[in-house]
Fold each of these.
Amino acid sequence: MGRMNDGFSTTIGFADYPAVSFWEKEVTPPGIQGGGENDTSTMRNTVWRTKAPKQLKTLSECSFTAAYDPVVYDDIVAMIQTNQLITVTFPSGATVAFWGWLDDFTPGANTEGEQPTADCTIIPSNQNASDVETAPVYTAA
């Protein structure tokens, strides 16, 4: 088992809009959260408050900063809030695929001498197009 020594090149693909080109400059893959604790303390505890883990997990937001072509504005409008399969590809070729939607596309300032970029946020839905709970899938390279 190895480790990533460099984040280059991590990319994001959208199944319903494969022709929309983002040129990723920075990618933050989704994280996994347990949701905290359930307090299980009762009046029968004697010294310690007790806790138990919650049963459900959360796939946290994914974000990226990318260069873009303004010609894709109409496609981006269509992508916003469209639940679809999204794939993050890591430098090794390993992938994590999950259902979610592009929630935010915020262009940065256009400045002379700098490449324009946009900050984007993806929210995982964890349910497929049929509204069936669907876990993220990791696939090794």
Amino acid sequence: MTRLSSDELHLGRLFNGFDYKLQVWVVNGVVRGCGHPASMRLCGAPCCNAYRYAGQPIALVPGAETFPPETTRRA
């Protein structure tokens, strides 16, 4: 999958855009919530990674996409 030109990268990390490995949206370096209804969370389990990591800085989420440190791209 190809990164979109509208994704914004800072210091080798996604700052604004979609993390394809985790399948989450990132805004200002923070994972956005999914907005799924509670009925999608069976037995209290997270419905998706966006729900699991919502509000956390993407730089601290295990498995988040990384890029060479010199990679910086703004939309």
Amino acid sequence: MSFTGGLEADHRVDSSNSMRPETAARVAACVEKLRRQRVYRHVLAVVVCGSAGRGEDRPLPPGGGSDIDLMIITDSRSPFVGRRIAQVLNESRDSGIEGGQVPRATLRVHRTLLNYEARCNGTVVDGARAVLAEIPMRGPADIPRWEAVRLLFNRLFEHIKLSAGLQDEDGCIAKTYEAIGEAQLVLERRYRPSFAERWEEVRERPLPETVPRLQEKYLQTATHRLGATAPPIASVETAQADLLQALSAALGLYTGLDGDLQAKLAALSRQEHNWLHRVYWIPRNALLGEPILLRYVLTDPSLVIWRDGLDYLTGRAAAADPAKLLLRWQACPQILRPRVCP
């Protein structure tokens, strides 16, 4: 039995929603695995977020895919609870399952794109439905501009997945331009919580050309998202170059700094001081037998990993193992904003 803290619980997998039947089946199998674990007693709700919860995800091939994001809301902030939940979800990775623990206490504070979409139209498949009402976000003005920067940094890793053989070219390109367009909508305070709403928003008020032909490229992702055959949006090389250009522009707007992307990231690294992330990350690496590097002491770990990803894609660390980069990125806590501005 989960501890719902006064919330009314409904412990069943609900398939009466807009999810694709194959998506609902994969989610149900993962939830059943989670229920068999002792850690399940800390689970308040299991939420399918993003495109999968709305039925807007790409059709998944048998035994594959990576478009089902699960938010496991817990009554505990323990990293050990989070680690066990991550292990369970990892067992379903071949079914397209991704995600992790979201403590209830942080759900009430952190203003992220994931939380915003979950608040607006997340699908609760197990547990207490009312918990999503605790997310303090009601509109696009509540999304910090930092989320645009974070979204673009994280999309670098779609290109690293491609290098590791864990992503196909069409998916990598489409996700790149989805992210560039959505980051721009965040910066302009007009982000919408579903793909259909974002496409409509952009048709009514076109995106600026922060990268060449952004409006055309972003709208063309709709064809790929809906599973229809379409000509390539761009080459992988062009998509990566556009992503780096958009990231540099967003980071410059966020920090108020000029210069190249590396210089802006270096300045950001000097500004951020999340000591709890450093205190968590260094012992975590020690327990796993990974080297304890001085840079994790001097810089917040997520910024180190974003820099590693950037160095790999731009050839500064071409010999790095992309699979190991992905594992560190997936495990690393990221800087989140508890306030609206900046």
Amino acid sequence: MEHFIKVILERAARFRNQLVVLEKKMAGYLAEKPPELWQELVALSTDLEKEEEKAREALEIKTRQVNETREAVRQKLAEYNHWRQQMREVETLFLANIVRPGYRLKQAVRQRTFLEGEYNRIRHEIETGGYAQAEEVETEVHATLVHGDAAFQDDRQSFEDEVLAARQELVNFPQFEVDDLVDAFEQEHLVRDFKRHVLPSVHPDTSDSDVETFKTVFEVYEQRDYLLMEAYIAEYRGELALDPEDDPIAGLEQACELQDQYQALLGRLQRRVDYVVKDLTPEELKDPEEVRRRMLAQREEIRERIQAESEQILHWRELLENLVKFFRDRFSEA
């Protein structure tokens, strides 16, 4: 996220929080409100309107960038499909030796994502007056940490399910990326969005698409190729459109997130295209030493990602544990 956008979002959030606090203070006066509170209300409202106007201007620029990146994704997907039709069938390899660390990585990502989301939720509740006492925050934080420790541990049954799924879905090694493991925890959402946005847009009964297009897209769906599914979703979901009635702050945050998502998607698509156009012969893929070298490199990368996620888990745990102090400090100042 660009620095100037981050500044706009931070200032707007601060002004909105200050307005919430001020409105609560004014509500405490049953009779006429003190003039200085009205003056403060007008000043804060003016400051907020200025930041919202900046956000609208930034949102227009960011929306264009999002749509330009989406178009680049669409073109890269078309390029991949072009090369995919010409490439030879290569032997798929079952990467049993990376399933377990891959499972651990996904569990770590799920735990980190959960802790991060809960931290943001609880902090937002604190900032908007959602808790009356520090004990409520402490109870919420404790429950979050306990669940985070218990729900994302290695579970034998879950791991066996993971192995079964991996056996049913062989991975084409030259196209395999560690990011594919990290993103897999969102696969249910991808399947849902694919059914909602893509399949009706290419099915001969519900669109003007030709049969070959439908076959190509449906093959991606059957193989659960989540990278290509995400690219098709970006294509058929359409461009990001501005709505003057929407909250510019929320819209700007959404546009920034979407731009980051599309940029990452474009990079992964480029790597996939690079794999396809590279001159890999079946003999090279059948070379045991070459295969072993690649698997060891991927396994090492996964381990590094697990370590990084573990550090982030500790980071978010510490932030969560500090929320009680944050609550007490905030309201002691008030």
